[in-house]
Automatic annotation (TrEMBL):
Binding-site residues for Mg(2+) 2, renumbered to this chain: 71
Gene: ruvC
Assembly and oligomerization: Homodimer which binds Holliday junction (HJ) DNA. The HJ becomes 2-fold symmetrical on binding to RuvC with unstacked arms; it has a different conformation from HJ DNA in complex with RuvA. In the full resolvosome a probable DNA-RuvA(4)-RuvB(12)-RuvC(2) complex forms which resolves the HJ.
Keyword DNA damage: yes
Active site: residue positions: 11, 71, 143
GO cellular component terms, A-Z: cytoplasm; Holliday junction resolvase complex
Family: Belongs to the RuvC family.
Keyword Oxidoreductase tagged: no
Cofactor mode of binding and number, as noted: Binds 2 Mg(2+) ion per subunit.
Protein name: Crossover junction endodeoxyribonuclease RuvC
Entry-linked HAMAP family: RuvC (MF_00034)
One Gene Ontology term from the biological process aspect of the record: DNA recombination
Cofactors, names only: Mg(2+)
Taxon lineage: Bacteria, Pseudomonadati, Pseudomonadota, Alphaproteobacteria, PS1 clade
Provenance organism: alpha proteobacterium IMCC14465
Molecular-function GO terms, alphabetical: crossover junction DNA endonuclease activity; DNA binding; magnesium ion binding
Length: 175
């Protein structure tokens, strides 16, 4: 019997950090909640990171996910922007890890391919597929839609090692 899992997907951003929570039970995806945590652009970097951290802690405490999935960042031409994104990404890794969750990471193209079938899908395609796969979801922003896509990706592809290990254990018990 497959047990239910609650997953949180996180789309890192210093300005807007998207989050999406889904339940997975017997292969069925159920939307639980989604949102965006925004930091105040007028504040110092440290204060903005604290704002993201506190907001994400509240989301994790409220929705009690079992696992977290985070989008890997990509390096762009603006080194300073890449570093800031990396720091926001660190918040997305640290908060769930401190809450005892196993954290998984996925490349942007893998997420797009997993959800839409195309590794270079645009935001509209991702949003449309999220709404198709989670018809009850009404993402409040493109960041929340991306976070739901990350959670969906993890539901389909994540924790393969654990699933293989569980299957091997079941086969061993039958022997």
């Amino acid at each position: 019997m497959t047990q239910s899992r609650r997953l949180i997907g996180l789309d890192p951003g210093l300005r807007n950090l998207g989050w999406g929570v889904i339940d997975v039970s017997r292969g069925k995806l159920v939307h639980i909640a989604n949102g965006t945590i925004s930091s105040n652009a007028k504040d110092s970097l440290a204060d903005r990171l604290v704002q993201l951290m506190l907001g994400l802690e509240d989301v994790v405490d409220t929705h009690q996910p079992n696992q977290a999935a985070v989008e890997n960042s990509f390096v762009n031409k603006d080194g300073a922007a890449t570093l800031k994104l990396g720091q926001a990404r660190a918040v997305c890794l640290i908060v769930p890890a401190r809450k005892g969750l196993k954290v998984f990471e996925y490349a942007p193209n893998f997420i797009k391919r997993s959800v839409t079938g195309a590794g270079h899908a645009d935001k509209h395609q991702i949003n449309a597929m999220v709404k198709t796969l989670l018809p009850q979801a009404k993402p409040e922003s493109e960041h929340a839609a991306d976070a739901l896509a990350i959670a969906i990706t993890h539901a389909h592809a994540g924790d393969l090692d654990e699933r293989l290990s569980n299957q091997a254990e079941r086969l061993k018990v039958k022997s």
